[in-house]
Amino acid sequence: MRRFSAEYIYTGNEVLKRGIVETDDFGKIIKVIDTGGKFKEQQSLEFFNGVIVPGFINAHCHLELSHMKGMIDNKSGRGLPGFIDEIISKRNFPENLQEQIAKADKEMRLKGIVAVGDISNTDDSFSVKKRSDIFYQTFIESFTISDKKVDETFNLAKAIFYKLKDLKLPGTIVPHAAYSVPDRLYKMISFFEDEKTKIVSVHNQETPGEDELMKNKTGALADVLSEKGFLLNEFSYPGNSALEVNLHYLNKKDTILLIHNTFSKEKDVNFAEKFSENIYWVFCPLSNLYIENTLPDVPMFFKKGVDTCIGTDSYASNTELSVLSELKIIVENFPEIPFEKLIESATINGAKALKIDDKYGSIEEGKTPGINLITSFDFKKMNLKSVSKVKVLI
Ligand SMILES: [Zn+2]
User: Measured in angstroms, how far is the CA atom of residue 149 from the centroid of ligand 1?
Assistant: First the structure.
């Protein structure tokens, strides 16, 4: 048995001053004790000068792009259209890909991440996922340039899906984004295994040109997609925004992770929340800064009290895979958001989105959530500092 305490414990549901957490040798929480701030030194108690939080949930990553660090030029000022242009021409499959994927998986665990919602276009990451200490929910992502390629594309996604199932790893087939999935393919994805309640993820409103493309098939995104061979006249885009198009096709009963939301406005949030109660808004701030040099209106989402999560995105658009670093950039830009709320986004909300909150996301009896210590914490402001660090306790 181990017993931990720190200046504060953020359990994911509440904040305990100098509380105590007892775990068994495998990290399962046996007891959480509220000492009311007063406790005496006790035998076998490990006390830390910092704050204890549950293991982090990374709600959006592309593990299979782990070899692409620094490969995409983010100084072009072309935003997502430039990124798409580069990633299509630069994505390769080097000999040491498995090594790079395994390294990224280890890095995430060292940075306190215990579960990941991970996008896969191939089966490249599956053997690492099978061996990993991290829980992975895999989103097999599908998209294509033309209606004529829909059957071939969906068959490929299914083949990858069955490989995942053979390995007994959890996952679903998901659309890439409103702009890259023709009508027939989006329907095939939505109807696939729709007798089940699924978890789906889709990139949403990451660049300003997305909504313009939906409305008029014009703009910077339309231009680069046409250049890359997308036959946009074959896409029907039934909606006035990427969000409307996505929700046109997605099932209300499913859990829906909307990724990025960099250009989502309050009316979009209202629209989606009216559509379903199972919407999770995932922010990947460092990736947004890398690609679009801008951030979503994060305070607006917190003010509305909707469910928000944190993702690192991939090494194609980030220099590290750390939930803490994503939180720090939010604190730097929006210091008015309380740390307690940020921790909910980074832990319990992500666990609910991936439907693993029976085990992960909060420090509660019976769960095995992983336990992180955050050091160099700003106890005056009760928030992160730029120098705050995470250490895995369990
Ligand atoms: Zn992504």
Answer: 22
